[in-house]
Amino acid sequence: MFGDGEQIWEEMPMEEFKLRAAVWWMSEEFAKKVKADKSGEKDNDRLAALERRWMLLFVARKLLERAHPTGYKEKLGKYYDGNWRLGEKPIGQWFETLYKVCKQTVIYVYKQSAIKPGFVHRNWMRSDSTIHDLSTFVAEAPGGEIPTIP
């Protein structure tokens, strides 16, 4: 999700470890939150859109790239130790804001796709066009901005 898929190290540089650890903690917190959100959800499209947390993480990357055009990796890497919880203290509140924007984005793009003729949920989850649609929405949609990483 956050790598380039090309580099292979004999020893991972510390900055890369910190980024990946921060993403892992973010993934864990997003997973807990999405599970809680889904438990009370009645809208089938919203439930379907939130089936995979990986969509949320992909959108998070795109939002961070938009909010930090010169680079977000080092800033995000500061939170590699997992010493935060979603919604708690300023950093947890920042991550919660990021989560909410990701969730809204995935649901919106899903619902827009679902109204098209021939829509198949399974294909949406696997399609390159879904990645394109999510990327385009994040890049072009008004709003959807998140505060810069504290």
Fill in the keyword field for this structure:
single chain; 150 residues; mainly alpha; 65% helix
Architecture overview:
- It is a single chain.
- With 150 residues, this protein is mostly helical.
- The chain has one domain.
- The protein has 7 helices and no strands.
- The longest helix is centred in the N-terminal third of the chain and has 26 residues.
- The model has no long low-confidence stretch (mean pLDDT 91).
Helix content: 55-70%
Radius of gyration, taken over Cα atoms and rounded to an integer in Å: 16 Å
- One letter per element, helices H and strands E, the order comes to HHHHHHH
Q: From the helix content, strand content and strand pairing, which structural class follows?
A: mainly alpha
Beta-strand share of residues: under 5%
Distance between the termini: 22 Å
Mean pLDDT: 91
Summarize the structure.
The chain is mainly α. The chain is built from 7 helices and no strands. The protein has one domain (14-140).
Layout of helices and strands:
Blueprint: H1 14-39, H2 44-49, H3 53-67, H4 73-77, H5 89-114, H6 121-126, H7 128-140
